Amino acid sequence: MNGIERIVINISSDFAVMDGKLSLEDELINIGIYPLKLWDLIVALGDEFHIQFSDSDLDKTKLTTLADVSVLMTAALVKQGF
Question: Which domains does the chain have, with CATH numbers?
């Protein structure tokens, strides 16, 4: 697991309603991260990484697992030159 994935999991644990250790394979809906919480999670991760997202980056149909969120963060960082 890389650093981005660790941060995604750590911050996601603040939004999840599930107790216990999270993994990248966890589906967002199964850990209680519904659309409104997903938005809050993305904002928190954007603040952590100092990045902003366009509406086109945030296709909720493609964000179903923590791995998807991690891929979004990685792509955003690459896009912004980090």
Answer: 3-79 (1.10.1200.10)
